[in-house]
Amino acid sequence: MPGQWSTNGIVFDECTFNNMTKNGIVTWDAIFNVRERNKFSGSPIGILASGSAPLSGWITVGVLGQEGADRNLFENNVVGIRATSNSKVRIFSNDFDNSNFDIAINGTTQSLITDNLFNNSAAGNQFENTGSNFNQNLCNVYTDNFVGTDIVGSNTGFQFLQEDFTTLLHDLFLEGVSSNPGQIQTFQGSNGAARWNYFSAGKPENIKTSTISPYNNTLSFWYFHPNPVIDARLKPLCPLNDICTPHSNFNNWFTSGTGPGCIFPEPPDTPPCPTEPCLEAIRLEITQKTAEYTQYPSDTLLAQLQVLITEREWITDELIWGYMASGDWTSVETLLNEDLNPANRRRLVGAKLAQKQYAGATAILQSFPQVTADDAYFAHVQTINTARLSDTAFVLSGEQEVALLAIAEAPSPEAGYAQALLGLLTDRTFMPRLPDLIYERSIDVQKQFNPPVMEVSPNPVSDLLQVRIPPSNGPRTLELRSLTTGALVQSLQASEQELFTIPVQNLPSGLYLLVLREQGAVVEHCKIIVQH
User: Do the Cβ atoms of 257 and 226 come closer than 8 Å?
Assistant: First the structure.
């Protein structure tokens, strides 16, 4: 059964979570390690880990360099790992198979995803509004996924390198959400430091930026690739500066650089020098670049600032975690107060909460500068969170719940904190949004795929959903799941039948996912809207 802990340091070895009615492991604000030979199968979510405040939620899944049967296995789940606003996420050397999402990360999260196998999923991993936090995909292998990595909203600290893609549609798919443009770190590589990603062969496009309104709100980036004469897969196709259609919103740039080095268990490739002198040097450089940009604004200077800010965030986190591990809260607060930028002001609230200094947290929140909508969201969520933590008899009011729901659904990095609180206090689960890919295929790409094997009507539906599937001799199952909670709503054994009627009149209005399985494998899925 799921576990919910307020403790830390739990280690999982050789555990099996099979066909859970809800989720496998569920944690809030916890430190835990899912180490080796664990199996998560047939559940809405294998691991659901959430952080309700900054500096909370440290999770490690897998052992870097682990091979064969010693690796953790995630198979036939709706979502393998869902990490929401966890300050530290490490996912190393796991096998994922036959899910909608293998890994879905949202909110203010810092992550390293390294040496994993992603197979036969809608998306190998998704990053949604993680902001300027360092998030790196390194040396992962993608096979038969519709999308390798799905980027939603602002993820300016995201970078990918030495990845190996063999996907069905897109290796990287970038989409905006509402007014929040889809973006990753503007410089993917640099002069003399090419990115050695191997893209899917035989496709007219590899990196795809959405063309569907309102998701087509994306910001351009530069991709630095090595010489494609070495291997044609090293250069992604159809950028803005290429002769092809349809273009995607990025530019290619040929440069030199060393080849791949995916040899483990060496540590992943991360920013160097997590020391206070290095942090001070980066702070100074940010100040200088900001002044230069103010006087002579340019896309290049802005991109350089973006890289420096992400490195600053990485080093700050590394130093803070070291101090926290030794219980040195004085050094934590001194470090944060030295440079009270928006991220550090948020961390300071988290530090006060972690020390149970609720009056101190309240004082910071009452004077919290609310320059942006994200600032207002953060202050509102953490005010409720502080009230919860300081009062053992706390009960969430209807007004507070409505406010949290509005923030949880906003295109903001702060949405993750609201989702975590609602999960903890109301048992809600927020599932990742499936990318709408069917209209994103170019004409050439469409020809490479068979037409859908499942037809549904009407959609939206209010009473009876008609489903038609082609004949088959093997055992098949139709599953209807809530996209809000991941819960299995209905399951039908299809066998040789071709036409089905699924009653939905008693289901709440909302989004659902219809999944067709043959011999346990997902053949097709589609989004269903129930509307009364």
Answer: yes
